[in-house]
Amino acid sequence: MVQGPSLTPPGLPDEGEVKLTVIVSARQLRELERRAGRDGISITEAVQGALEIGLIVWNAVRSRDRVLIQTPDGDLREIHLPRLGR
User: Fold this and answer.
1) 3: helix, coil or strand?
2) Are 50 and 28 contacting, i.e. CB atoms less than 8 angstroms apart?
3) Closest CA to 48 of 20, 26, 23, 85
4) Residue of 25, 31, 48, 85 with fewest CB within 10 Å of its CB?
5) How does the average pLDDT of the chain come out, rounded?
6) Total domain count, the chain
7) Considering the domain boundaries, does residue 7 fall inside one?
């Protein structure tokens, strides 16, 4: 896998918060706004939550783990994310 240069500025601490500007689709923004409103959180918190979930799933897929979602009825559904597994 080819990796680009790090975007992390030199001397950035390992902990704490930094500001990150990203471009999202209109659909993604609407979904973040919907979830933030439903859960009573800010858009920033919704983005942070989505990133955390994304990192967990990304790491699992990269490790060749299976990613499963279980419904309230107990049915299992496998999530396929081929683009993340490269």
Assistant:
1) coil
2) no
3) 20
4) 25
5) 85
6) 1
7) no
